[in-house]
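Re: the pair you flagged

First of the two:
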Amino acid sequence: MPIRIAIVEDDAAIRAAMQSTVEGEGDFVLKGAYGSAEEYRARHNGLEDLDVVLMDINLPGISGIACITEAKPKRPEVQYLICTIFEDNANLFNALCAGATGYLLKSAPADEVVRSIRGIHAGGSPMSLPIARMLVDSVPRKQANAGLLDSLTKRERELLDLLAEGYRYKEISDKLELSIETVRTYIRAIYTKLQVHSRTDALNKVFAR
């Protein structure tokens, strides 16, 4: 099934670029591109025709965060991927609390946007690298769950530590001198052992406040 997508972005040039990216993928279907939350809400009030929404934060009228807060309970399976120029803790945490499950900077290249849409639809929580590292740095040092860590091999724990530091798969591959497919195999094994589906869930499960 194609991934049904809406875009909510008030900057016409950025909205057009996002639209072009979405329309360039054979497994994506663009259901609409809107300059405000009000326009989006008027067209997709029931949300039955959407899977993923690319949402700006700083919109005229209703903000992106307020829009997600209102819309998410109506249809929780719709995934909200924040695309914004804001790179700060307040907006990040407010967006995540509202129900967003991914957070990208508008400077992210088109291929990262495409990967993130597919990832969030598959159950992941994609974040631009600067955002992931900022999130890790903002969280107080946590105490590891020794029992869960003991279930991992030494190499798996090494990869988990790099995930916690915000490294991408390619960076982990280069750092450990492993192929990208080997890295993916290790990470799938980690997720299976921890019974999670994303980096965020893995870190939250292993590390307790």
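Second of the two:
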Amino acid sequence: MEYEAVIGLEVHVQLNTTTKIFCNCSTEFGAAPNTNVCPVCMGLPGVLPVLNEEVLKKAILAGLALNCEIAEFSKFDRKHYFYPDLPKNYQISQYDLPIAKNGYLDIKTGGTKKRIRIRRLHMEEDAGKLLHSEINGVNYSYVDFNRTGVPLIEIVSEPDISTPEEAHLYLSLLKNRMRYIEVSDCNMEEGSLRCDANVSVRPKGASQLGVKTEVKNMNSFKAVEKALAYEIRRQIKLLEEGEKIVQETRLWNSTKEVTISMRSKEEAHDYRYFPEPDLVPIIVDKKWVEELKATLPEMPDTKFERYVKEFNIPENNAEVITSEKDIALFFEECCKYYDNYKSISNWILSEILQYLNKTQKKITELKNLTPQNFVSLVKMVDKGEITSRVAKDIAPEIIEKGTTAEKIVEDKGLKQVSDASEIEKLVDEVISEEVEAVEKYKSGKTTVIGYLVGKVMRKSKGKANPKIVTELFQKKLL
């Protein structure tokens, strides 16, 4: 029998406010344990929470970016459960009246668009963090309450995802949109973005859903893919062997690459939700929502389609460039000074992104880099004034110091040599020095010409026109 998977994702995004959702404590990451706490986030008797307006604003922006309906009336609820890092023994969340609902994201899979519906987006406070250690052979657990009360939005999709690959695409687009609207850095390593997955399998074409399991503890998109793939295989194997699937929460073990049973899954009624009595309901003005909507930037997937259509650049280039808003904006600025958009995109990918990866910097930190100076480099290559090798050599100086390509080339005498007679001397030198390689070429191994051309390029310090070099070798080695 052939089976199909049904997947729904629950994504927690930490909002990048400077203070917590219901108090003035700092949300700084990495502070000493239990230093960013106060009576409110610790849930001490007699305290009253007050909603941070910036949290509400960013939650609405996130809802709008995910094509959600923004509720004019919503409220907070208490979600009761006991865990050592939850000081109040309940979490302030939203249950039946969330701030946003009925949204969607369109992912591109197999050359076609697929709509993943979003059921709801709600605000809630984060819990603390357990720290485990061993001292003299004895295991200890400590609680750090710094994260308690940090603002989160939870985004719950409908079970519209069919494969682990689709889950990855959905998460990538969601992450990019949250970063474009600057409500979160979505840093999974620091816990700013976390994902739980609900997955079930059923006979292909069936309408009834199978028994689902929830998978937690996935700290990267690749881990989500692997965990879902494993869990789908595990459930299918159980069904094929006549076993029953148990509704439960399972943890992903990244070392063994398996899911492990954690606990039986709670239903909503087990949390004993009831309205939070210490917080008034939220009434959102429609005019304010429209004003916030007007501030939204062009979304990454929309930019992607526009870049491919308007700038006619390769899809891979467009995908990489639009993955970071600041890089996309830099690309657009460059396009104002030069119309070879494909060439600009190629050089951004090969030089700027390589530099950023190497230095672990953001493009906004490159204060001396200007679109005009970078474009000057691309133009000189396209015009044949410098070789690609020279361009790669001087690119870091342009990025770091903001110097124009023309000045560097002039100061260092790096202009491309296209004088055939001058290049011919170097070609003749290489032919006399590389007898073995020349014989290989003459015997039919024409790929060796790349080696010979490289020798000339080194002799000319990268300045010889490689096209002329190649033509001269082909002519002389007939």
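The radius of gyration is 29 Å.

-B.
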